[in-house]
Amino acid sequence: MTLVKRNQTAQLPNLLDDFLKADWFGGTSNSFAMNTPAVNVIEREDSFSVQVAAPGMKKEDFNIELDNDMLSISAEQKTENDQKEEGKYTRREFSFSTFKRNFNLPDTINTAEIKAEYVDGVLHVELPKREEAKTQPKRLIEIS
């Protein structure tokens, strides 16, 4: 146990920080925090690409839904140790993680052609643009 000098006027924030940061059993993990993966969105001439960093998951853990112009990417992963061992546990941790990210899609997306793949811990979702939304080449307009 370490001794920490605290500012008496700011007691409540310190108590909340201790509650939300520390693992009560002496570890360093934060079992109370939500784990939301980082997302990159890349715009290209003919598409958008959404990259979700989710290492350690399988493609079966993901659920991608499209409702009107709302793209929802969610995942649920349970890890349980089913081994039967003799004795009693001094500490046993079950892992359960879930997240959900929503994206409003612009009208320029061709929703019928959306594709997704999971490679090396990153979920890639390709959102192709409609033909009329793609960048048109520069052209000369003749004056009549």
UniProtKB/TrEMBL annotation:
Residues 30-144 form the SHSP domain. It comes from the Bacteria. Residues 34-141 form the CS domain. Transmembrane segments: none annotated. PANTHER family: HEAT-SHOCK PROTEIN 20 FAMILY MEMBER. Belongs to the small heat shock protein (HSP20) family. This is Hsp20/alpha crystallin family protein. The lineage of its organism: Bacteria, Pseudomonadati, Bacteroidota, Flavobacteriia, Flavobacteriales.
